[in-house]
Design goal:
Blueprint lengths: L10 H6 L1 H5 L5 H13 L1 H21 L6 H26 L1
Helix pairs in contact: 3-4
Length: about 100
């Protein structure tokens, strides 16, 4: 998804990292970029709101159980790979 407006941080990148942002699992510098983007981009802010609601629903249904650390680390690695892939693919399509 892209709103079609130029931003410092691309919409695709922001939405790919929204769960890391919600879980406070990205670097502070990245959080600042994402927060700034959400403040200026209505479509991403709406999508972020939906993701936030889904996360809250899952937490209520699962009793706020924490995943084992090894699983969390594997998921972080996979999400990072997906972000890199999507970013690369998105840039190739626009070139």
């Amino acid at each position: 998804m892209s709103c079609g407006q130029p931003h410092e941080t691309d919409c695709h990148e922001v939405l790919a990292e929204v769960y890391l942002y919600l879980d406070l699992e990205c670097a502070e510098e990245r959080r600042t970029l994402i927060r700034h983007h959400l403040e200026e981009c209505g479509p991403c802010l709406r999508e972020y709101g939906i993701e936030q609601e889904v996360k809250a629903l899952v937490a209520r249904c699962c009793g706020n159980e924490a995943a084992p650390e090894k699983l969390r680390e594997r998921l972080r690695l996979r999400l990072t790979e997906l972000v890199v892939f999507e970013t690369t693919e998105s840039r190739e399509l626009t070139d």
